[in-house]
């Protein structure tokens, strides 16, 4: 994805070498970047800077990443929050997501992984910055709530649209059933997780994906869209 002029990213981490590394990398990608070394400064900076995306380390002095995330989600009109966690702790991920975090990255991570997560959040939460997004054979137009596949408009229900958009905009990333349920159906969904399988099957029929080459199943892990 080509960087969009004027997209603002805030980085908050108490490790200066990580901040410098990420800041230089994102500036080279064309983004406007500001940094904070503790949670309190991050909250103040967000009020002034008004970032589109905030990347927050969980463990920070003064205010931790969870507290900053909650504050940003309560005070900013529309901000995407990506949490950085030092361990692959399910409880940490669940806590962050319940407080409004949109994604998480487990340390250590590659710059390209974080960049892909940032781009996915921009595509999901700021479609007006992007207009129509093209990924391989898919064209996602969030303003018209329309997805084209190989040039043809797909006839999708609202839920099918949201599910396929989520899969396509996160192409190449394995998405678990629980994560899909949280993002597409919401945290308060009280049904069975096999609803995901039902909708995946319907999407495959509409994509004529009998061999599961477009929407792949990784048994015991989740689903991944591969662009052919």
Automatic annotation (TrEMBL):
<dbReference type="GO" id="GO:0000156">
    <property type="term" value="F:phosphorelay response regulator activity"/>
</dbReference>
<keyword id="KW-0238">DNA-binding</keyword>
<keyword id="KW-0597">Phosphoprotein</keyword>
<dbReference type="InterPro" id="IPR016032">
    <property type="entry name" value="Sig_transdc_resp-reg_C-effctor"/>
</dbReference>
<dbReference type="InterPro" id="IPR001789">
    <property type="entry name" value="Sig_transdc_resp-reg_receiver"/>
</dbReference>
<feature type="DNA-binding region" description="OmpR/PhoB-type">
    <location>
        <begin position="130"/>
        <end position="227"/>
    </location>
</feature>
<feature type="domain" description="Response regulatory">
    <location>
        <begin position="8"/>
        <end position="122"/>
    </location>
</feature>
<protein>
    <submittedName>
        <fullName>DNA-binding response regulator</fullName>
    </submittedName>
</protein>
<keyword id="KW-0804">Transcription</keyword>
<dbReference type="GO" id="GO:0032993">
    <property type="term" value="C:protein-DNA complex"/>
</dbReference>
<feature type="domain" description="OmpR/PhoB-type">
    <location>
        <begin position="130"/>
        <end position="227"/>
    </location>
</feature>
<keyword id="KW-0805">Transcription regulation</keyword>
<dbReference type="GO" id="GO:0005829">
    <property type="term" value="C:cytosol"/>
</dbReference>
<keyword id="KW-0902">Two-component regulatory system</keyword>
<dbReference type="InterPro" id="IPR001867">
    <property type="entry name" value="OmpR/PhoB-type_DNA-bd"/>
</dbReference>
<feature type="modified residue" description="4-aspartylphosphate">
    <location>
        <position position="57"/>
    </location>
</feature>
<dbReference type="GO" id="GO:0006355">
    <property type="term" value="P:regulation of DNA-templated transcription"/>
</dbReference>
<dbReference type="Pfam" id="PF00072">
    <property type="entry name" value="Response_reg"/>
</dbReference>
<dbReference type="InterPro" id="IPR011006">
    <property type="entry name" value="CheY-like_superfamily"/>
</dbReference>
<dbReference type="GO" id="GO:0000976">
    <property type="term" value="F:transcription cis-regulatory region binding"/>
</dbReference>
<dbReference type="InterPro" id="IPR036388">
    <property type="entry name" value="WH-like_DNA-bd_sf"/>
</dbReference>
<dbReference type="Pfam" id="PF00486">
    <property type="entry name" value="Trans_reg_C"/>
</dbReference>
<dbReference type="InterPro" id="IPR039420">
    <property type="entry name" value="WalR-like"/>
</dbReference>
């Amino acid at each position: 994805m080509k960087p969009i002029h004027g997209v603002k990213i805030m980085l908050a981490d108490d490790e200066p070498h990580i901040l410098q590394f990420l800041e230089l990398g994102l500036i080279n990608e064309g983004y406007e970047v500001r940094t904070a070394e503790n949670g309190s400064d991050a909250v103040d900076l967000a009020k002034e800077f008004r970032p589109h995306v905030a990347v927050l380390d969980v463990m920070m002095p003064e205010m931790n990443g969870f507290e900053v995330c909650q504050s940003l989600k309560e005070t900013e009109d529309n901000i995407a929050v990506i949490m950085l966690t030092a361990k692959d702790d399910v409880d940490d991920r669940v806590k962050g997501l319940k407080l409004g975090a949109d994604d998480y990255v487990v340390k250590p991570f590659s710059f390209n992984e974080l960049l892909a997560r940032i781009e996915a959040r921009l595509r999901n939460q700021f479609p007006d910055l992007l207009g129509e997004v093209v990924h391989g054979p898919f064209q996602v137009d969030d303003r018209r709530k329309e997805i084209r596949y190989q040039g043809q408009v797909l006839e999708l229900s609202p839920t099918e649209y949201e599910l396929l958009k989520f899969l396509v905009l996160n192409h190449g990333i394995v998405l678990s059933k629980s994560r899909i349920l949280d993002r597409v159906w919401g945290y308060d969904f009280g049904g069975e997780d096999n609803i995901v399988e039902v909708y995946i099957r319907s999407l495959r029929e509409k994509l004529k994906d009998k061999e599961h080459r477009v929407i792949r199943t990784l048994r015991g892990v989740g689903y991944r869209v591969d662009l052919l």
